[in-house]
Specification:
The complex is a heterodimer of chains A (148) and B (362). With 148 residues, chain A is α/β, with parallel strands linked by helices. Chain A contains 3 helices and 8 strands; from the N terminus they run βαββββαββαβ. Chain A has a single domain, classed as 2-Layer Sandwich (Beta Polymerase, domain 2). Classes of the chains: A alpha/beta (148), B alpha+beta (362).
């Protein structure tokens, strides 16, 4: 059986726009991005994947960020990135700057803020009790999320 | 001078099998912008890697979606095998490919029925779903399940399929193909179908690349990318086939690609069943994923490329499991295809991306 080749490239989160521009210029397709909270680290790991459809390889670019660090959006370069970036914000609390479509915390209808950051057994305050519940776009006619 | 109107479309709408919301900005009857909104059925399945060990998590992965359930168990199994440096037995690889193609047939025929219902051809919808039932009967006979099969696990396939059963599948598909040809002919040549789909929701090849579209949506615009031909998650080395493509880029082309992919899947199954090797179908995977080990795999689901990522941490639980499903990356392309269309064509355009919101939200 043949194998799907992939490479892992460590990057600095501050460089993601430059990295994405280079991948875009090289004809790479944006696959996805996601966040992760490692068990042994208080930082967050953010990952962007780019595919080369000519040779069917995937490059996974990884960066570690502090919880309050802001990450640049790549959705102006790759419009299909906006769902993933909104998801990173809603599930992991990653602040993403200059989103193409910013749902401002209302992408998913969540009971807790950043639920994927919780450690097992951790008690958390629900969003509505903490006063953090967003006005969810789409609940009312004409209430569209902010588009850039 | 016309004023712009915002019409909320969904999350509950007759044409939508699953909840997705669109804010349609209209200028008279023409859509000038469509802003998608999901998030109504998010289940947090990825976070369950904390609760289930990496072998048992396949049951969760399979339940990401009820239509491409086998594809998700296949993707997860090959992901874990890649993470553990394991290779499934060859017979299991053949059986996985056969059942994945059966899943593609059942998914595409289900979609054809939904599309027929969306453009108001109810008898075509019923005939499509009647044919789909025959594929589900095969699943039930071979695995005991019609939707959730529990057939593919890390290590191989949980139950062998006898040669007589495989012959029965091939014989059934030969008969089935003739019946399917009749409804395929209607989808491709009926004047009422063509009048609803031709020239509607056009996306050029450049646009599908720009917006990251995958699967039949991309192939219908001439972008011949099919992960079945690429390594793990693919079986281009097992069977002879090439991506089905079209250059028109409209709703009709997306329908045509799926219609033809069904016939291609029948050919692939027939070919694989004729040369499947004997041997074991399952080997147990021993050990735990190493701390920091990472793996990816991609699978060509019926709707397009699904991407799977896993990271181990030295325990029986994965540290991170990630699925990127094809609908997620097709939604921006859908929003683009909606721009400039008539309000009456919105349901058809949404249907032709074959949206699967359960997959998207996981």
């Amino acid at each position: 059986m043949t194998t799907q080749s992939f490479t892992i490239t460590p990057i600095q989160a501050a460089d993601i726009l430059r990295v994405a521009r280079e991948r875009k210029a090289a004809g790479r397709r944006f696959v996805e991005c996601h966040a992760n909270r490692p068990y042994k680290d208080d930082r967050l790991e953010v990952t962007w994947s780019f595919a080369n459809d000519d040779d069917q390889t995937v490059e996974v670019c990884e960066a570690f960020i502090q919880k309050d660090e802001v990450v640049d959006s790549v959705s102006h370069l790759y419009p299909c990135a906006f769902p993933f970036e909104n998801e990173m914000h809603d599930l992991y609390g990653v602040t993403v700057r200059d989103l193409l479509i910013d749902y401002q915390g209302g992408f998913y209808r969540l009971h807790f803020d950043a639920p994927m950051l919780a450690r097992p057994g951790e008690q958390r305050v629900p969003r509505h009790a903490a006063g953090n519940a967003p006005t969810t776009p789409g609940d009312q006619a004409g209430d569209a999320p902010a588009t850039d | 001078m016309a004023t712009k109107t915002v019409i909320p479309f969904g999350p509950q709408h007759p044409v939508l099998p699953e909840p997705v919301h669109l804010d349609l900005v209209l200028d008279d009857e023409t859509v000038v912008e469509a802003v998608p909104q999901i998030g109504f059925i998010h289940r947090g399945l990825e976070s369950l890697v904390d609760k289930r060990d990496y072998k048992r998590f396949v049951y969760v992965a399979e339940r990401i979606c009820g239509i491409c359930s086998f594809g998700h168990s296949l993707g997860y199994s090959e992901l874990v095998e890649s993470l553990m440096g394991f290779q499934a037995p060859e017979r299991a690889q053949y059986l996985r490919a056969i059942f994945h193609e059966l899943s593609r047939i059942h998914s595409h025929v289900l979609w054809l029925g939904l599309a027929a219902d969306a453009f108001g051809f109810e008898s075509l919808f019923m005939h499509s779903w009647r044919l789909r039932e025959r594929i589900l009967d095969v699943f039930e006979a071979c695995t005991g399940g019609r939707v959730i099969l529990n057939f593919c696990e890390p290590g191989g396939i949980v139950r062998d399929v006898e040669a007589t059963e495989l012959d029965g599948i091939v014989d059934m598909l030969a008969t089935w193909r003739g019946e399917y040809g009749q409804i395929a002919n209607t989808f491709l040549n009926d004047s009422s179908v063509r009048s609803r789909l031709c020239g509607v929701g056009h996306l050029s090849r450049e646009e599908v690349i720009e917006y990251g579209c995958v699967g039949p949506m991309a192939r219908a615009s001439g972008y011949a990318n099919d992960i079945r031909l690429a390594g793990i998650g693919g079986y281009g080395h097992l069977a002879e086939f090439a991506p089905v493509t079209s250059d028109e880029g409209d709703c009709y082309a997306r329908c045509k690609v799926r219609v033809e992919e069904v016939l291609q899947s029948v050919d692939i199954i027939t070919e694989l069943a004729g040369k499947i090797p004997e041997g074991p179908v399952f080997e147990d995977i021993k050990g735990k994923p190493a701390d920091g080990a990472e793996a990816i795999t991609r699978v060509e689901q019926p709707r397009g490329e699904a991407f799977y990522y896993a990271k181990g941490n030295g325990t029986m639980n994965l540290e991170r499991f990630r699925v990127r499903t094809p609908t997620t990356t097709n939604i921006p392309g859908m929003a683009m295809a909606l721009r400039g269309c008539d309000l009456a064509d919105v349901p058809n355009i949404i249907m032709t991306i074959d949206p699967c919101i359960s997959c998207t939200e996981r």
